[in-house]
Amino acid sequence: MDTNNKRRGFLTKLSLGIVAAGIGVKKAEAFTLKNPGRDNKDPRYIGQKNKRFGMVIDLRKCVGCQACTASCKSENKVPTSQYRTYVPEYELGAFPNVRKAFLPQLCNHCENPACVSVCPTGATFKREDGIVLVDDSVCWGCGYCINACPYDKRFFNTKTQVADKCTFCAHRVDKGLLPACVETCVGGARVFGDLNNPNSEVSKLLNTFSTSVMKQDQGTKPRVFYIGLNSQISDVPVSEAVLDDLMKKMDKSVMHEWSTAYKEGE
């Protein structure tokens, strides 16, 4: 058993132990592992049958404008200083051959999501069309899914007090609309659609270009694919707070000149 599976198993056992002990339960009824929305066959929880949604991000077209970040925050009412998606910048190469790279990031809506298996309440689930969601009426904020995500793409929403992340704008997709980030992408770098449809734009891109995913060795099978992903940044931890620090360290820059932990006068 690999390390990730051991961790997931431990978290599951730990959560069940908490249930048995009755410690710190925000919503006792949540521990039934039932989800009212799915149990009642609510289409928003079931998703679109015979479809499998995914996204292709063409890094050759991303200009780092952050339009996707802004539209996501507006559409989904994400709290200040928290993000469901964002576009960090990197410097690749060494002087004088240096270039800037952008890496849009969001929940990967994995085929085998690590977050679902560790959720003790059933709040985190995957729809039939592959979109991974969090039911904030069931989630009680234990944080297990946040720790289990190998991409660091979940966070504790300071407003709702539960786990939060990108939803592929499922509420828009179910109405035949595109996710907000895709609709507002200035360079047309983000493409969203049905992976089961060979004639969809995402399928055509996947069949035409070589693509990569983040942290492929995790075995989660992400459904966010990148065209032109540089191997230097494909496997680094992707927490927003440490991205710049890690890349500067790789470039052997002086620590005190760039560290996010550095304070003037230290």
General description of the model:
- The chain is α+β, with helices and mostly antiparallel strands and 266 residues long.
- 28% of the residues lie in helices and 15% in strands.
- The protein is built from eleven helices and ten strands.
- It has a four-stranded mixed sheet with strand order 8-1-10-9. It has a two-stranded antiparallel sheet with strand order 2-3.
- The longest helix is centred in the first third of the chain and has 19 residues, at 3-21.
- The protein is globular, with a radius of gyration of 19 Å.
Spatial strand sequence of the major β-sheet: 8-1-10-9
Percent range for helical residues?
25-40%
Number of H/I helices: 11
Which residues sit in consecutive blocks of at least 5 with pLDDT less than 50? 10-31, 239-243, 257-266
H and E order: HHHEHEEHEEHEEHHEHEEHH
The average pLDDT value, as a whole number, equals: 82
Give the C-alpha Rg.
19 Å
Q: End-to-end distance, in Å?
A: 45 Å
Largest sheet: 4 strands, mixed
Task: Name the overall outline.
Answer: globular
Number of strands: 10
Structural class: alpha+beta
Proportion of β residues?
A: 5-15%
